[in-house]
Protein: ACT domain-containing protein
Amino acid sequence: MDFNGLYETLIFCGFLMKCRRLSNSPNSRGTSPSHAAAMSLSSAISPSSYAAIAAASSARTPIFNKKKTAAVLSPLSLFHQSPSLSKTGIFLHRGRKESSSKFYIAASVTTAVPSLDDSVEKVQLPRGAMWSIHKFGGTCVGSSERIRNVAEIVVEDDSERKLVVVSAMSKVTDMMYDLIYKAQSRDDSYESALDAVMEKHKLTAFDLLDGDDLARFLTRLQHDVNNLKAMLRAIYIAGHATESFSDFVVGHGELWSAQLLSFVIRKNGGDCNWMDTRDVLVVNPAGSNQVDPDYLESEKRLEKWFSSNQCQTIVATGFIASTPQNIPTTLKRDGSDFSAAIMGALLRAGQVTIWTDVNGVYSADPRKVSEAVVLKTLSYQEAWEMSYFGANVLHPRTIIPVMRYDIPIVIRNIFNLSAPGTMICRESVGETEDGLKLESHVKGFATIDNLALINVEGTGMAGVPGTASAIFGAVKDVGANVIMISQASSEHSICFAVPESEVKAVAKALEARFRQALDAGRLSQVAIIPNCSILATVGQKMASTPGVSATLFNALAKANINVRAIAQGCTEYNITVVLSREDCVRALKAVHSRFYLSRTTIAVGIVGPGLIGATLLDQLRDQAAILKENSKIDLRVMGITGSRTMLLSETGIDLSRWREVQKEKGETADLEKFVQHVRGNHFIPSTVIVDCTADSEVASHYHDWLCRGIHVVTPNKKANSGPLDQYLKLRALQRRSYTHYFYEATVGAGLPIITTLQGLLETGDKILRIEGIFSGTLSYIFNNFKSTTSFSEVVSEAKAAGYTEPDPRDDLAGTDVARKVIILARESGLKLELSDIPVQSLVPEPLRDIASAEEFLLQLPQFDSDMTRKREDAENAGEVLRYVGVVDAVNQKGVVELKRYKKEHPFAQLSGSDNIIAFTTERYNKQPLIIRGPGAGAEVTAGGVFSDILRLASYLGAPS
Ligand code: ADP
Ligand code: ASP
Ligand code: MG
Structure:
């Protein structure tokens, strides 16, 4: 430094000093001199000149340090030098009584400056387990009542010594960032926003303090706000805030909350001082919005601070610190946890307790997974992985400082003191809070949103050393943070995740860096895959355990979630998958329930609460508790829709009173809205739509629903007996995906007909013929059509007993049986259309066009003789009449007809409305495999549908 340089420095420092004096407040004990000086500068000069000086102050001025080597010191930092530095050489001096506030300005050239410590009157800073560190998050000090509560907790802790790290009152840091944003956007409302911040603290102070304490706090607050106003004005004029300006402004929330709390603790009888941690904590910027603590320097400063502030309880500001040049900085968002951990390490504390608003670290973010459980313990590594990958209950940097000295961290809930919390220490135990031993080796799950993947791809990458280094070199130059990396061993591509906000710059840098390779075709592309999220699965015991990733990916597949990239480090503590953002919460929910709860939760949407639908809802209601208890299956009906009204619920409809609720809260039916609601319920990974209508319009949506990963269960025959091409498309889709389509109740209601047929085919049997009485109505009619009655009498009887459709011709026409035949034929591999099945209608030709059912029944007796003759002919041959459907697999045909069977034949033995189906196969050749039983009625049909839903649950992982 030449003389002029030195002179300028002194003039500048002197100017700052003058300003400092001008604004020196009587109650500025707590204000670090450097910050106060910087601030008072702003109030002493016009805003525009302040901006200019502030800019100059960030250009550091070289001076010499005691080893005679050039050091870089900002003008602001000059205020922070120890008196010892000024013992020789030139100094400007403004002494104060309290040593903590004493400051000297020095620019010296000297050889033998005594060490920093020599000048400090030695008061040994006690270290060790006698220190207990508490950190209170923003919500813990969110109001005067809560601050009082915190003070009580602190006072009640009977540790020998306590250091309490405190965050800003909740929302205050956001408000402070908003001030900066407003000021640099030249939005005048920053002034009123600042007033609101002041008002909030004023009101809190009025509520908590009185007398001198209140006066001191308010003077200090007013003083700080004046300074902030001036600084924000400078930012407003410049239209820009440097990082140090911004850090300075946003850190005020902690300065105020710490003072408030310390006053209250003192009021409660605690021996307490507050610490502006900018006087103690020294950190170096470490790129990517991070800082590294300088432990050595911080320790020295802590000793110094303690020597003049001895007390049993220290209330320290979280979040804020200084650079080695004494420029105010922060530990970045949510950094107070980190502050507490650093303090814990500096004091070699016995324990760091982090107080927050949840019962501890949950197995997944409790806001996203309602079934998440509190973990009793976590290892340091697990906690680190969880927090790094998005569990914001803990700042990711918190672990390193405490791990060094094996200091346990306990996360506790200030609002639930009886909860023991989560202990983070060296060894973790696989237990949840309620003592449940986990079978799983997975501890927890966390997610990070707003990411993008970058894929660098090309044949020219394989075997070329330095490609990865060049890629990540380019990423580093942009300053982007790489969150995960994945490279296939073919070396054909490298993909990595970066924050979405940085992806464009990264891609641009890579394109520039690899221009030549791209032009030459050695690299084919630098592709951006936007809208991604990361799901991390964490657990120390996953290491060396086979099957964990298989289970994980299986759960994702079952929830129909596509995985875009995967990474697992060789420590095996973490498996990271990249997914589409819209799938993230569903994925989290799916893997969580798979590993943790083995509970299969399915969102159910019921379409058509008619006779079958309503019966199903009753069955679901009656069985829900048993299923949950015994099989860990949780079926939540999220919506019920008829053709006119629908009922939607966010958490599950109360099935004991859905009819009333539908009347009260039903809205106009809209099938798409309904499906979106049931499916969009992100906290449930799997969705099933149960179509209980007989409607072909509803059935026409199945393909789309299955494509969207929605499972379909139905007794509706329309889809499987509709146009062949659509049926084939549906089945092909079902086979290709993990989405399920079950329709057991389309044939024979609850009888196991479809599953039996599928079982035969899947195990290699060959179907020759399926023959059966598929209509309960027609079964009843012919079982009761004896010599004592006429056909029309039996039909009327069946109608009166409720066995027929309202118009019995719908049964007698045989179309319904034909639909069942076509379903079974197609299931057996025959490619037939409904029109390929000849159907013998039992409705006499002249009566087919009659308008009403009543008229039809009146006229039917005219045709009895024909049917009587057929019955008598059969009887004379020792046979009975039966109305059957036949699948002739050998000749690839199907038919529905009235046939005669010997009296000994099983079909002749039926009673009531039973169905009977005979499978003749290569294995069941001599004797057909016969299934018989009631094949119609709401109870058994709904039962068949219910059993399909449970089959779905077991396919999705429910225990058997
Ligand atoms: P504080 O202000 O006390 O530091 P934070 O909001 O930073 O509190 O962190 C606590 C919040 O973290 C909880 O309210 C919770 O919503 C969220 N969180 C996210 N993941 C988890 C998890 N796995 N376990 C517990 N809390 C979590
Ligand atoms: N108040 C700071 C923030 O909100 C630090 C913290 O609370 O951890 O980011
Ligand atoms: Mg936090």
About this structure: The two ends are 81 Å apart (CA to CA). Residues 211-238 form the longest helix (28 residues). Residues 141-348 form a domain with the Carbamate kinase fold (CATH 3.40.1160.10).
